[in-house]
Here is the input.
Amino acid sequence: MKTPLVSGIQPTGRLHVGNYLGALKNFVDLQNLGRYDCRFVIVDLHALTEHITQKEQRRNILELAADFLAAGIDPKKSIFFQQSQVPAHAELTWVLSSLTPMGELNRMTQFKDKADRHGANVGLFTYPVLMAADILLYDSKVVPVGEDQLQHLELARTLARKFNERYGRTFVEPKPLLTEAPRVMNLLNPAKKMSKSDPNGCVFLDDEPNVVANKVRRAVTDSGSEIIFDPVGKPALANLLRIYAAVGSTTVKRLESRYRGVGYGTFKRELGDVLVEHLAPMRERKKKFMRDPAKLRRVLERGSKQANKIAGDKFADVRKKLGLSL
Ligand code: TYM
Here is the structure.
């Protein structure tokens, strides 16, 4: 039997290299291993916490669907769906809310960050409970995510345990699965995570080749001139080496020996070339998918139907365990 796996991405704008190397690329690799029952979800209910207009929301969902398919998610191998079309996600959220102490949510660093930037709404506060529901409905043993989601995943584990203790064995406690680049940093500030809130420090997957090359060329480097991997002493360079290793299908060690005695300028130019080469086919495929939105809708509709079957059965069991089914 294959191992159940679930992960999701918010449709809140363009994906960047952090999303790709921390999550999406790994989704594709895991899907193609053939060892996992993969479920990938566009978490559009999560995106509501950012007050996006109707037009933006619809466009963002289709764009993200195109990103997934362009990266290599294959709806024949994975269940690929839209969260809002599977009502059990919202229903289980309510059930899990009653098991969640306020204190657990108060501690969430992402809530604090976002509340500082956008102002707090209750959705933003309870968002990790919805994420727990996304995961627990599918008996997911593993959840591929970037490092910034670990705290949320810990809550999903806690809630699974609590529910099981109180109502009998129902949920699986999920484990995170990180990549070699679980926290890609801002190209202009290696102390900050790469995020779309700073477009200049961030390479978007659909940036034009000259834009990608320029962003990499302008990336900050550390003092000294040697290309060595030293995350503490040379955090900016360590970030570039991790990106290079991931998109160039090589290792940081091999890069160190290849660039011994070579300057930062050459290193960054070649990293730019490798990144452009890696992203270009995906950008072209995305354009093609965006020309056929009806197909994107069909793919998501079919996936959502499959997800509804699994999640609906799971939630029926939850209802029974809670004494709600008479
Ligand atoms: P989201 O949409 O913010 O990000 C999607 C994925 O990208 C990863 N990521 C990064 N990885 C490495 N370096 C970075 N700089 C970087 N920035 C983002 C994130 O860790 C994530 O894996 N709450 C989630 C979405 C979600 C989810 C789920 C994930 C909702 N339900 C269930 C897994 C399972 C989020 O907002 O990710």
In short: DSSP finds 13 helices and seven strands in the chain. The mean pLDDT is 96.
